[in-house]
Amino acid sequence: MKRVVGSLLLLPLTLLSSETKEYDGYSYFSFGMQNIKYEENIVLNNGQHVHSSAHATSPVYISGSLIRVNEKFDFSIDLLSTLLPSETDEHWYLDESFVQQNKFDAIISHMQFLGHYKLNNNHRIVFGPIYSLNSYKRYTFKDQNGNDIVDSDTGAKIGLLEERVANLRLSTGYWYESAPQATPNHMRYRFNALIGQTIWTQASNTGFEKVVFDSINSYELQSSAYAGYTILKGLEIGLFIEYSRQEKTSTDVADDGHTKWPKNTLTLYQGGVSAVWNFSK
Q1: Is 269 within 8 Å of 243 (Cβ atoms)?
Q2: Are 201 and 170 in contact (CB under 8 A)?
Q3: What is the reported pTM?
Q4: Is 32 helix (H, G, I), strand (E, B) or coil?
Q5: CATH code where residue 112 lies
Q6: Is residue 15 a part of any domain in this protein?
Q7: In the chain, N or C: fewer CB atoms in 10 Å?
Q8: C-alpha 69: how far from its chain's center?
Q9: Burial class (CB in 10 A: 0-12, 13-18, 19+), 178
């Protein structure tokens, strides 16, 4: 009888060990397309409204890992970058009247580090920092009639202008894992939704030397979903979609009293193919 009781007592520990192994970590790599919409809005001192808009579609890659820490905590790392920025036209409007256009391209990148507090293995509360670095290049400036725009002081054509914006945000949200990674003959789903508040910013533009903005009046919303199927032991292939919106909610004025950094919104839609693996199982 003692042997039977002992075996029964060990049974829950065996099940727990099996579940721990099943819900081990994994790595992934994704490739797809990224649709970018970038807009700026500013009200001039005379009350006129200036609005710009640019759309571009470029290849993107995303990679990362989910690392199991213990029964209550996991940790994830995600890296994203535009691979080859596509050239597009950016249009500028003054009180709804078209006044200018220029060529535009954007490189979007971020690093995301999230701690996972597991309500259970499927449902998690996540929290952590996200660092992003966005680069916007503008060139070939034309007025509404197609004429080159020149510098008012030198009379020369305006050359390449690059704006770089670095942000550090603290984000929190919800993360769902439907099943252990690479479960045989089984679809697996993942979903997350996060909101992040900016805590540090550094923005500069090559058109304004020695002017750096540090406004933290911005936030980010993001969400992603994935569905994958096991094709080999330890390997899944699936599809992903992602959405994010970075919004700067105020217009900021530099110390010179003239140079301004407008309100702006960056909206991203991304989708493609993912490979997810853990060959140590």
Answers
A1: yes
A2: no
A3: 0.89
A4: strand
A5: 2.40.128.90
A6: no
A7: N
A8: 25
A9: middle
